[in-house]
Amino acid sequence: MVFCCCCCCCCFRCWHLPVCLCSCHFRRLDGNALFLSKYTRSVGVERCEFEWIGENAMATWGATEEYDATGGEQPRGTRIVGNIAHDVGLYEKQSSGWGQSKSCQSTVEGNGARA
Questions:
Q1: Which domain holds residue 14?
Q2: 100 near 61, Cβ under 8 Å?
Q3: Fewer CB under 10 Å: which end of the chain, C or N?
């Protein structure tokens, strides 16, 4: 499956069931290719390729009440396994293959970057 467009490709919000994006190809996206926001649970991203991405390849961002995260509005149980990212950050200076903020219980393993 190949995703091409001129905006953020995927934005999961309030995702209650497990979801797995496997063997997908994200190409030529101006923003974040994959952005998991607030209440998302058990999202898996496995064996995907990210290329020519304007910002981050994959990112999470949750919400808290100051420092209190007991409300559960954070991505939890995310699995990022065996992905390849290259040519990311075309428009953003501090971009990455994986960015995590205000999320927990993530597994990130076996990912790589290539020139």
A1: 2-113
A2: no
A3: C
- What residues of the chain score a pLDDT lower than 70? 1-16, 115
Instruction: Tell me how long the chain is.
Output: 115
Structure tokens at 47: 């064996």
CB 75 within 8 A of CB 40: yes
Distance in angstroms (rounded) separating the CA atoms of residues 78 and 44: 6
Q: What is the pLDDT of residue 109?
A: 97
The token duo for 72 is 């559960």
For residues 37 and 11, the answer to whether their CB atoms sit within 8 Å is yes
Query: What was the pLDDT predicted at 27?
Result: 95
What was the pLDDT predicted at 3? 43
**Residue partners of 68: CB distance under 8 A and separation at least 6:** none
Q: What pLDDT, on a 0 to 100 scale, did the predictor assign at position 16?
A: 63
For the chain, what is the domain count? 1
One-letter amino acid at 2 equals V
**Nearest Cα residue to 102 out of 35, 17, 56:** 35
